[in-house]
Amino acid sequence: MKSIEPAIKADERPRAGEKILRVARDLFYRQGIRAIGVDEIVRRAGVTKPSLYRSFPSKDELAASYLRQYDLEFWARFDAAVAAHPGNPRAQIAAFLTRIGKRTQKPDYRGCGMTNAAVEYPERGHPARVVSEANKQELRRRLRAMAAAMGAGDADTLGDGLLLLIEGAYISGQLFGAGGPAKSVARNADLLIEASLKK
Are 127 and 60 in contact (CB under 8 A)? Predict the structure, then answer.
């Protein structure tokens, strides 16, 4: 006897998965990954739990998928700042950090999703932690390379100093909000660069 259950169309799964990921991204960013349960995600997405688990084998994998998407968007912003100032790493960094400084002043700012996930998941092998660490390692590598391209005598120390300023902006943006110290992250980075290049 033929099943009377409607067949799931091939194009329905990606749509459900995209909807789930969109809802999870918003909730994870605003409230934290651990704070949000699967029940809340499926309720807000208007799907069933089986739909979620067809697209994402576990909540951990959903969190990692959210962060992989966040990673792509992060590098798109970074690369846009680089492309806007070809051959000028100092201006590239200034452009990228000016944008961060502006974002930290918005009322709904919750910092960097990568940083937040790394704090939430201290276990080294957790899928969300793995994505976060890879993003931060690549950012460190790029900043050090940009510092070297600027001619810094100690490029690694300058690159690391810039990374510390960026991470500080992410956190202080959440603590102080509008008018806080994160708004001047680009200016502080430029002062650090200037001091490093004079040595």
Answer: yes
Q: How many CB atoms are located within 10 Å of the residue 175 CB?
A: 11
Tell me if the pTM is above 0.85: yes
Which ranges constitute the DSSP H helices of the chain? Answer: 12-31, 38-45, 49-55, 59-84, 89-103, 113-120, 127-149, 155-176, 185-198
The answer to whether residues 29 and 113 touch, using CB atoms and an 8 Å cutoff, is yes
pLDDT digits (tens, 9 = 90+) for 126-148: 999 999 999 999 999 999 999 99
The answer to whether 188 and 169 are in contact (CB under 8 A) is: no
Nearest to 84 by CA among 95, 71, 97: 95
Distance (Å, rounded) from C-alpha 63 to C-alpha 127? 8
**Cα–Cα distance measured from residue 65 to residue 103, given in angstroms and rounded to the nearest whole number:** 23
The C-alpha torsion from 44 through 120 and 137 to 177, rounded to 10°, is 80
Residue-range domains of the chain with CATH: 14-56 (1.10.10.60), 71-195 (1.10.357.10)
